[in-house]
Amino acid sequence: CVAHGVQGAHNMADDADKDKAEEKTTSREADVKKEMELTKMWAKIEAEDGNLKKKKKQIRELVKVGIPPDLRGRIWKKMIGNHLNITVDIYQFYVSRAEAIRDNRRKQTLGCESSVNLIGTDLHRTFPYLSVFQSEGAYNDTLREVLEVWVCYRPDIGYVQGMSFVAGLLLLYMEPEDAFTCLANLLCQPFFLSFYRMDEKEVLSILGALDKLLDHFLPNLNKHFKQVGITLEVFAVDWFLTIFSRSFPLAFTSQVWDNFFHLKCDVRYLFKVAIGIISSFEQTLLRSDFEEILHLLGRVPHSLDATRVLQICEGLILTQERFRSVL
């Protein structure tokens, strides 16, 4: 009887495992089907509106769902644009210049061009859980090249830690020349230059704006931050400087970028995302001390509910007038 009971328990366990496996298979099939449908919808839009400037409402709804990974590079490139008019020839010119500096064939350098020699120490730290950026990885040399080209393109800025995550994420979806074009057109925006130039006055103004917005949207939590000694720069500088790419799951960051680029890189959206992330952990943070808050917001767990955060962002009303008033 005992043997039959044990066998029966094993059979029930086997049936449960089969059910779980079938559920996972069904879920994967549903995800594949959904992605195929989204790809078809995007293909139709691109065929009818190549520059993505006419079907705004339809595109907005698709972006909320998330751009299919296979299309992200092409769509992001169109959304970011190229107001700097960077060409392949310009890219290749700076590739050659960077190689000469790195190989000590160019003795005279401009500004921070010598910072090309710092890039190598950061490559393996870029998304360390992805082998492609490690020393023998497929994208290691490519990431180095894109960052070196940036240094020579903007010697007044040079290489700053954090850039490799932005460049790295772009490289996961597009070719090096396109990744550099997008990187330059992003980082040359005043908001990001404030961080990469380490402009203390501008950075403090940005953090002050976030503080005022938290006072408005999450007053109890912001009060708790101040009571336990948390200042916003301990996590928010990294969030903004890397456009949420270093401390967050890649899938979440990619969706944030989908929306940010679609909104023509309106920095108000980045503030919404920051508030959305903090809001999603509000109850946990209210019960946390300094070290616990620092740990949670410094390296956001993969349990982050991306859908909820993005829904919170959609519900936040931040007009240009209000935004200007807090800056």
TrEMBL record:
Pfam families: RabGAP-TBC
Rab-GAP TBC domain span: 66-264
GO molecular function: GTPase activator activity; small GTPase binding
Cited InterPro entries: Rab-GAP-TBC_dom, Rab-GAP_TBC_sf, Rab_GAP_TBC_domain
Gene3D superfamilies: putative rabgap domain of human tbc1 domain family member 14 like domains, Ypt/Rab-GAP domain of gyp1p, domain 1, Ypt/Rab-GAP domain of gyp1p, domain 3
N-terminal signal peptide: none
Region (Disordered): 1-31
Biased composition (Basic and acidic residues): 12-31
Database matches in SUPFAM superfamilies: Ypt/Rab-GAP domain of gyp1p
Protein's UniProt name: Rab-GAP TBC domain-containing protein
Organism: Paramoeba aestuarina
